[in-house]
Structure prediction request, 228 residues.
Amino acid sequence: EAGVAQSPRYKIIEKRQSVAFWCNPISGHATLYWYQQILGQGPKLLIQFQNNGVVDDSQLPKDRFSAERLKGVDSTLKIQPAKLEDSAVYLCASSFSHYEQYFGPGTRLTVT
Amino acid sequence: AQSVTQLGSHVSVSEGALVLLRCNYSSSVPPYLFWYVQYPNQGLQLLLKYTSAATLVKGINGFEAEFKKSETSFHLTKPSAHMSDAAEYFCAVSDLYTGANSKLTFGKGITLSVRP
Prediction:
């Protein structure tokens, strides 16, 4: 089966610009997650969707980050405006059951 | 609240030597525990998981881990390291009561190097 797809793979922007990331989960996976992985740290959950509803967004900086999951399938994560500390890898994951999350390759964001 | 501690940031072993990567967890409820591996410029891949069944869990690529409640540990081992095992390894915890799609809390990761 096809894995979790993410695009773009790499993005370089200047601070105060906006950026958007796209994720296509594995077909049939109702749960979708966005994680932020800063260099030298483990992934940190930003937001979790169940179908197109938000389950947990407690660690999402809502003043600058937003995410949506249209029709319970694809999802986009947006940052506006970006700060230097947003430089990280943004990972998308999806799951169906059995406690296993499948991760995409990630988008590496560099804010200059 | 749940947390994971992975002491040290880097482990180096010789090819063919034992691999031991340590993970300790803190959880107020019975935990589910996971080990993930991340190769350069790739996403995370599940190595193995403990979900309250057998305490000794076998995973892919010859890795295994043992859940020890008394020590709040879930250390990852492999009897004989291979060059292809060089990667970053993350331990993660979620909780039993939240369900199959609960969020993961990750440790900071350990980089494994394998010397020829």
